[in-house]
From TrEMBL:
This is Heme chaperone HemW. CDD domains: Radical_SAM. The lineage of its organism: Bacteria, Pseudomonadati, Bacteroidota, Flavobacteriia, Flavobacteriales. GO terms for molecular function: 4 iron, 4 sulfur cluster binding; coproporphyrinogen oxidase activity; metal ion binding. Keywords: 4Fe-4S, Chaperone, Cytoplasm, Heme, Iron, Iron-sulfur, Metal-binding, S-adenosyl-L-methionine. Pfam families: HemN_C, Radical_SAM. GO terms for biological process: porphyrin-containing compound biosynthetic process. SMART domains: Elp3. One of its GO terms (cellular component) is cytoplasm. Gene3D superfamilies: tm_1862 like domain.
């Protein structure tokens, strides 16, 4: 069982906070789409005899592509790899690209899940972020998408100076009013070399406030859990049967192949990452070379990764699984380190796994790093 991620590295404009790989120049679109098709073929040996359960178009902004261009990529992937009858096929879309026609076309070409970058329903917040869409488009996009899709996820951002607790509640209430079965919510972070970082350095935007983000996170968890969403990963909430299969595959360590500039791949003991430059990516493919570098992961790397991703999910971290994957010494090390956090109540035993308690959810990164094995 595995997944394929395809990165579409184009956007209409640069959001102020974003450090993903994308270009606002679309003139290389055609050669890049050709290169994606060739890379799918070139790297087929990396998922030998694997059933590909999920195909995910991320970016960048995949909805900037024509539906036929996405359809060609889907059919290419299906001609090379083995898919079940009804795999999850997700398209990330921005609200300004959604129309009734487009939503219908996406459904017709086999997309069965939309992940929509709403971020906020307030005009001034969208301007602060430099999003390409406005608040009206956010609402219209949800209505049109809802006519053709029941499996929709929306992204929201919290923890920025303009967002009062009242506005955050309002954003959540608006999202809930569309009966969306999956919501991803992320605290805004200041990434190096972004416009946001420069605005904060120049004093044009106040620095982000961790206490504000924590207050928003509490509101988020309480509100969505009360509405029947399962908080199955630290930033992800889904109604039962609507968890993202693609993201869950990452978190539970299933293999995945990443296609396109900057895409990452993972095969248990090996990780790969593609070059983050559109021109160099296309050139490498045209020369018949996969534009990817690999790294072999040590047991320690894999143990640390398991702790980090496991603690972020409702499935937690299992001592038996640690022993099975990494040996008895890792199990013992983990049990020694985890005892203090079980005593403090930040981590709790659930079945045979250790998971974050409601209070521990706010401390995940620190808890995980305390359980890491280093040196
Ligand atoms: S649309 Fe997404 S990928 Fe593009 S700049 Fe904005 S946040 Fe980044």
């Amino acid at each position: 069982m595995s997944g394929i991620y395809i990165h579409i590295p184009f956007c209409k404009q640069a959001c102020h906070y974003c450090d993903f790989h994308y270009s606002t120049q679309l003139k290389k679109k055609k050669p890049l789409l050709n290169a994606l098709q060739r890379e799918l073929e070139m790297r087929k040996g990396e998922l030998p005899e694997q059933l590909v359960e999920t195909l995910y178009f991320g970016g960048g902004t995949p909805s900037l592509m024509e539906a036929e261009e996405i359809a060609e990529l889907i059919s290419r992937a299906k001609s090379i790899y083995t898919f079940p009858e009804d795999p999850e096929i997700t398209l990330e879309v921005n609200p300004d690209d959604v129309s009734q026609d487009k939503a219908r076309l996406w459904r017709q070409i086999g997309i069965n899940r939309l992940s929509m970058g709403i971020q906020s329903f307030f005009e001034e917040d969208l301007k602060f972020m430099n999003r390409a869409h406005n608040a009206t488009e956010a609402r219209e996009a949800l209505e049109w998408a809802g006519e053709y899709f029941d499996n929709i996820s929306l992204d929201l951002i919290y923890g920025y100076p303009l967002l009062t607790e009242e506005k955050w509640m309002k954003n959540l209430e608006t999202a809930l009013s569309y009966e969306i079965p999956h919501i991803s919510a992320y605290a805004l972070t200041v990434e190096p070399r972004t416009a946001l970082q420069s605005f904060i350095e120049k004093g044009k935007v106040p620095p982000l406030d961790e206490a504000q983000a924590e207050a928003h996170f509490r509101i988020l968890v309480n509100t969505l859990e009360n509405e029947g969403y399962v908080h199955y990963e630290i930033s992800n909430f889904g109604k039962p049967d609507y968890f993202s299969q693609n993201n869950t595959a990452y978190w539970i360590g299933k293999p995945y192949l990443g296609i396109g500039p900057s895409a990452h791949s993972f095969y248990g003991r090996r990780r790969g990452w593609n070059i983050s430059n559109n021109s160099k990516y296309i050139k490498s493919i045209e020369e018949g070379k996969a534009p990817v570098e690999y790294e072999e992961l040590s047991d320690q790397d894999r143990y640390n990764e398991y702790i980090m991703t496991g603690l972020r999910t409702i499935w937690g971290v299992s001592p038996d699984e640690i022993e099975k994957r990494f040996g008895a010494s890792y199990r013992q090390y983990f049990l020694n380190r985890v005892a203090a956090h079980l005593n403090s109540g930040d981590l709790i035993l659930k079945g045979d796994a250790i998971v974050a308690s409601p209070s521990g959810k706010f401390l995940i990164d620190g808890l995980a790093s305390d359980l890491f094995r280093v040196g």
